[in-house]
What does this fold into?
Amino acid sequence: SLRRIKASGLKLQLCTNETQATRESFVRKLRALGFDISVAQVTAPAPAACHLLRERGLRPHLLVHHDLVPEFAEIDKTNPNCVVLGDAAENFTYTNLNEAFRLLIGMEKPVLISLGKGRYYKETDGLKLDVGAYMKALEYACDIQAEVVGKPAKRFFESALAELGVPPEQAIMIGDDIVNDVGGAQQCGMRALQVRTGKFR
It folds into this structure.
């Protein structure tokens, strides 16, 4: 449990591809379930994407879940020169996907930033398509390659390690996703452990 990890003196950082809510909302939900976690202990794709956007002077068209929009409040979104894609859930309509496609296809050098590339995830009512499926559709339609900001991107794990202040060989990633959690961490030089919960199959 997280309590035992903290009591042991080990450093802890949660790496999530959660893109349907802000980190604050995510932490509130975990705290309500009894987990003693702070926002600073969460590495998530949206803040990482904001850092990248500022770094490169990019102005995004957002195709994300409406609950995630506050993460981009400080980012200039006028006259977009890229598309940022997250797990938009009900916002993944044909109209919204087509709008993102038209923006990308109209750019001289299209830039598609995806907040993860998971194929599916598990909810209480079953498996659901994840952002990766929609990312692939836009990649195919525009003949481009998306830049992935969340797991399993190496840069994402490196930012979590930087937060912890430890080298990869001194860290272990625990997760249920063999590609995004285990594979991504191993690619970064970390050890990884797969748990048999969620979508481990």
Notes: The mean pLDDT is 93. The first helix runs from residue 2 to 7. Helices lie at 2-7, 23-32, 45-56, 94-105, 131-142, 154-164, 178-187.
